[in-house]
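Intended use. Records like the one below are meant for learning the mapping from a protein sequence to its folded structure. Do not use them to infer anything beyond what is encoded.
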Amino acid sequence: MTVNQPTTDQSAEAPAVADERADLLVVLARHREFLRLTTRGLTDEQAGLRTTVSELCLGGLIKHVAAAERSWVDFILEGPSSRPDFNDMTPEDWARRADEFKMLPGETLAGVLDAYAEVARRTEEVVAGLPDLNASWSLPKAPWFEGQPEWSARRVLLHILAETSQHAGHADIIREALDGAKTMG
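Structure written out for the chain above:
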């Protein structure tokens, strides 16, 4: 059982951009750091513990946020073909998705954090190279996208930021229930 100490040097440095993309990347990097900080000093076993009535654990939340960010960046680059048609997902597809929220046997917190840092680096490289945040794609089929025909790269980045922030809050509650530690305060 390794105790992991996430530090700011594990977070990706935002590429040099000087427009709205820079603001989005700086805020996203900050909220990623809040999420990573919830795992400060934990063992792999602790990172996989459920401390509330939900199925969520700290390692699983980070895995989920990384998977969601990776998938949405793929959407920015490739459009709806990069995302599943949620209406056609099989029970096996849903089970694989549920595993995003868990620390599976053999997974380590260090490995989860490293994978998240790699996702962050890729996102920042893609965003820095985007010629236009207004470029849009049709959304994939899913019940929660009804009435929203397309999203721009900007909207996708705002969604990634909102998802990261929301789950950083969840992580704070899980950590506080685990051992009383708080990200802030």
